[in-house]
Amino acid sequence: MTDSTTSTTVLGWPRQGPKRELKRAIEAYWAGRSSADELHDIAAALRADAWKLLADNGIDEVPTGDFSYYDHVLDAATMVGAIPQRYRDAADNDLDVYFAMARGNDTVAPLEMTKWFDTNYHYLVPELSPGTTFTADASRQLAHLAQATAAGHPARPVLVGPLTFLLLAKPAPDAPADFDPLTLLDPLLEVYVEILDQLQEAGAQWVQLDEPALVLDQPATVLEAARHALGRLGSAMKRPQLVVASYFDALQGAFEVLADAPVDGLAIDCTVPDNVTAILEHGLAGKRLVAGVIDGRNIWAADLDDRLTTLRRLAERVDDLVVGTSCSLLHVPLDAAKETAVDDELRSWLAFAREKVLEVRTLATALTDETAAAPALESARNALASRRASARTYNDAVRARMAAVTDADAHRGAGYDERRTLQQEALGLPLLPTTTIGSFPQTDSLRKARAALRRGEIGQAAYDATMRDEIAAVIELQEQLGLDVLVHGEPERNDMVQYFAEQLDGYLATTHGWVQSYGTRCVRPPIIFGDVSRPEPMTVRWWQAAQSMTERPVKGMLTGPVTMLAWSFVRDDQPLGDTARQVALALRDEVSDLEAAGCRVIQVDEPALRETLPLRESDRPAYLEWATESFRLATSSVTDATQVHTHMCYADFGDIFAAIDDLDADVISLEATRSGMSLADELKESGYAKGVGPGVYDIHSPRVPSSEEVRELLQKAVDALPAQQVWVNPDCGLKTRRPDEVRAALANVVSAAAEVREGLSARPTTARG
Ligand SMILES: Nc1nc2c(c(=O)[nH]1)N[C@@H](CNc1ccc(C(=O)N[C@@H](CCC(=O)N[C@@H](CCC(=O)N[C@@H](CCC(=O)O)C(=O)O)C(=O)O)C(=O)O)cc1)CN2
Ligand code: MET
Ligand SMILES: [Zn+2]
Fold it and tell me: Where does the Cobalamin-independent methionine synthase MetE N-terminal domain start and stop, copy by copy (predicted)?
């Protein structure tokens, strides 16, 4: 960096590669089709390409160590030696121990996985206990740093910070339940000190410590711990300069802690106006500011004039200004220019990771030399003007319909008890009814058929026939297994959000826009660019096909409005609640059409309801209001005898039981296995009184649970809850599992349900059917 130009960086970068090469390499290693060395080579080449792309596009300092084989929180756990003994015993080399923690193996279940703040990225929850001894292992960080340095890139290792690490961790199974991981702060800090020493020794000028947990509502004790932690790291004898990064929301009280800390820089999310105000008001006491003015989480080309104004104001207040992204670009796809199926006008509105790098560069250039940046600023201005003026974002019919929505539209006719009676009459289900969450394995042959259709190698009729065959096989399997409420298996879906987005107006699906969701699993979040409506039925023919093959009820299967938003890139030009209502009305049409076709059980999945909950408590009531209302708007057109199901997975449901109740769904299935069915007690305490299926089969692991394991979990559920309330189902859909795993696991689920049912009928007082 020279004095005359403003420096640039990004807080992190997508890991999968332009063609998801990392995914393929890791899955090949898992399948025994390639060696660890082959995996390491492919990964190293992807890192080299990524850093070169950054450097070629004017990024001065590249992030390193954020490139993970599975998850950066798991990497942090490994780095500090927080590896529970059962994983050390479960494999004979470090890489396989790592993957055992991530996804389990034949001998051990994986760590719990949950959402990274309010994103669709998932991390593995570190397990800590009073006996945890931290040990430093910076080998990964050192190797990546050495690789970048050798390639000539100024590099900045990125580490999950010690506070966020502890705040995201949970007590190990053998720890006292009230054990607070924060009590381990001091020993953990000593390990960080050691790692910082090693990184400095290896030539790192700067290290980035990610502390996004500081944007959550934290009690004074945690802010005090933050002060203490940064004090300790800041006073380390030998260390690189430290930049502490926070993102996703306003820092509020934590701002002062950071501004006062004896560290050298702060990376602050400057897409949050409160954060900019705090910097302008209080300054940063001489620290470097990595100003995160480019949104790392959405895909709209930025208003560069507006961003430049912000940067100029910041530049007056801080001495050392670096232009950057608000967070890691992990959450956006790589390259909008690759979306050649999108017309030029629409594509000009988009900025994926590569385009965001160019925006960062343009802003930095403009700060010192506006003439040099003028052409880029001008083209950004044009793109923005074209989007703002476009008729494609506006639909009169949708607007008129939104305006006509009444309160009654968002409410069922009768109350739950009355509906329950009518539904039981219509469906005649046994006690502890068994069902699945919707998807059956997405096999290679299904994906190949879809790819062939896309390439024009087969026609629509042949494709549909393949899907019908699959539906027939899935229906037959469920009948053989003895499940009570069946599903068609979702073979036709590439993804539960993208599939619907492709059929809705106002939505744009991408071809190459992959974003990591967890481990090697990726999604292509579609883009809501305009008013949303449903031109024609989306699922009815698949449901009809399935129902024509069986006497048992088949669930209609849709993705709910909140999840459609949460797993898409959303408009930034209208309130989220308005977009949610538009999607809800489109889904309402589908719900009505399913019911008209004879469907009596309709599931509308809302797995993203919890993750979309604003990080700050003060923003939550308004969100929950529009979120629950839009779900009810989507589902309330049906008669009382039609059973509405919903489903949610991997979340702490504790803080949203009231909202779950507000959805007024007749039955909800929830993930519960990895937390050992502690959910059942929480449900009991909450007083939740509608149908509920706490999951008894962890579908995120290839492990097949034994019938005994399932029975124990289910027994816990019926011990806590009235049996007539309880449904039996896996934690989530089965699309990521292999057919043989699914058959074996579901057989155990069904037999466990039968055993528990039998046990209950031996004690008739607890089981009124
Ligand atoms: N959007 C979303 N978010 C979610 C979930 C979800 O289901 N959807 N579930 C939770 C967990 N997240 C998940 C995310 C992804 C996957 C997943 O299985 N993803 C698949 C891709 C799914 C997909 O889009 N499939 C397409 C494209 C498949 C593909 O890779 N095709 C090949 C070619 C086909 C071939 O020859 O194999 C290609 O395009 O290169 C299809 O089936 O049509 C993967 O990573 O492998 C599962 C769970 C939370 N968040
Ligand atoms: C991530 S929630 C998934 C729900 C969906 N119906 C499925 O089974 O795949
Ligand atoms: Zn799920």
Answer: 8-318
